[in-house]
Amino acid sequence: MRRLRERLVRKLVEEGIIKSEKVKRAMLTVPRELFVPEHLRELAYEDTPLPIGHGQTISAPHMVAIMLEEAELDEGMKVLEVGTGSGYNAALIAEIVAPRGSKRPGHVYTIERIPELAERARRNLERAGYADRVTVIVGDGSKGYPPAAPYDRIIVTAAAPDMPRPLVDQLKPGGILLIPVGDKWNQILYKIVKKTDGKLVVKKVTPCVFVPLVGEYGWREDAAYLV
Fold this sequence. Notes:
- By secondary structure, the protein is α/β, with parallel strands linked by helices.
- The chain is built from 6 helices and 9 strands.
- Helices cover about 25% and strands about 25% of the residues.
- The protein has a 7-stranded mixed beta sheet with strand order 5-4-3-6-7-8-9.
- Helix 2 (about 20-30) packs across helix 4.
- The protein is globular, with a radius of gyration of 16 Å.
């Protein structure tokens, strides 16, 4: 598995998707095979999304790397992830903002609306050694997580119909929000930088395909998108 992981990371570096040493190191360190269903582990280092149950997926490694690079993560940051899934992305974020032995460790709060997935993610993170650096919450991620706000970074791994206002409000001045926005067939990953005066600078990053963000500030459970 380590050799397959190294081969995948080398490919993403050669393609110019992984640009920084911190993202490269995180993706070499975190064992993706621990975050995919056991019967799919032989596919853990294929550059493709994989199903994790309940209609959800673990994102393709290239999309994960794009988001990590655009987030401009650094040691000591407090990060909110919306859409825990299997916990893989949270582990990668933690590896960057709170590396083992850090003198100024950050922390990752990750919120998942499906209780069974949240519990599985907790087990995955514990097995991989990240339970002390990642807090898993069950709830409506479209509303963020006010108890730990504000955040240096907010990373959303599900597509919203529009930018949820609570997430913008919970972002620190100078912070970055990454979020896919669009319907089932047309989505764009946006990077929003909140300036110190509260103004937002919005950048289109790339077309993408994510599962829907379901919640009060996302898609309704009965929306046609979900059919």
